[in-house]
Design brief:
The structure is a single chain. By secondary structure, the protein is mostly beta strands. It has a domain at 1-31 and 285-453. Helix content is 4%, strand content 50%. It has 3 helices and 35 strands. The strands form 8 sheets. Strands 1, 2, 3, 30, 33, 34 and 35 form a 7-stranded antiparallel sheet that branches. Strands 16, 17, 18, 19 and 20 form a 5-stranded antiparallel sheet that branches. It is globular, with a radius of gyration of 21 Å.
Length: 453
Amino acid sequence: METRKVSLLAISFASLVIHSSFHVADIKISVGPNIRVGAQKTRQAEPFIAAHPVDSQSLIISVSEVVDGLKGQGLLSRSYVSNDGGQTWESTELPGQHEALVNGHVQTELDNWILIAPNGEAYYTDLPLTSKNSAPIYVFLSSDKGHTWSGPVEIADRNYDQPRTTASLRDGKMRIYIAAASGGAVVLSSEDGGHSFQIGARIQPDNLGHQAMNPVSLVDGSLMLPYFDFPVGEQHPLNFSRLYVARSEDSGNTFGVPRFVADIARPYPGGAYFATDVSPGKFRGNVYGTWEEGDFGPRLVHRDDQLFREESGNRRVVVVARSTDNGRNWTVPRVLRAEGRGAAHFATLAVSQQGVLGVLWIQDEQYESDARCFRVWFAASVDGGDSFSLPTTVSDKISCSDPNLNPEPYFKTRLKGGDYIGLAAAADGSFHAVWIDARDGAFRLYTARIEVR
């Protein structure tokens, strides 16, 4: 195992704002080997990972895989399971999905997400684009740590986008929540173990676009829904977007007044990720959020009297903010970045059962339009988000994608192999990162174990 000793950059929020002073303390971050997951030539996209709440050796990855020779884009949802803490991985199929791609019923499957509930049950959600141009949500269930799956349960009352899941054990009852975009930010819930879902509240206070992020079950049993608003087309001449959270105390049927978190200096915000500390320690109940600040992002530019999509800008850095009152108020965001590198993307985080906060992101090697070369970075906090370690590299090689090796239409606008990466905290306190890596030019799934001491 490669071990890097890094300094914990201890900067209080007050000193950052007023004096910009800091002091340094030492911790150790150990990054294990980068492990390739999947068949040798398989190309993949949009990974996520979940850790079992009790069994630290049990992990599940959700991912889309390219199926060459099939109709459409040919991306198939697949799961991988590990019984040894991420050292080895076994592929497990979701029932009926390969056949649906072969017969053309499903054109492609994206937005994969994996959840392991507090009782150990696993829930895999994805978004299939069907031959009828509909986009329902599929939900697959597993009672054996992801080795076999049942389903799918199909939620097909409307078209959805980016479904994300969480689970809550409240009043002795397990509830499964799905947040997604569909005419606003919506929440669906299940009280029968994911066998059926009922639609709850929809957040759509104006005529802007509204994109739900991952829902969060708070320690008091309530539900928090983060979401962005953003301009939709030329009718909204806005050059920024805004991030909010709303809280429900009745299982997602209604939400209170949304609380403003941040504005983003670009019209298409990308993603954000939130998590809460459920450890028994002094930071229990803290809620953390991460996203990227700055103007670097996708935009339309004129070239020779034609419009082209381009990723460009001057600044994009990871930030982390904390709330100690269930999202009512948020600290000034803390900036995380690997100095001397380019734009940051896909920030995500996880909190261990020991109360350690880990943050994962990818960062371009340099600032340039439509950058294709990046590394994966990690930072940690052991004091509830007051300070963070200096970033350390997770990927042991630079990823530089080759468009000739990734010809699918999906990858033409996804230069990092998707729209997100994943980080999970296992029961033993270790973190497990998953990302799409193109160190050989083609997009492939990698994972690594990270320890914070």
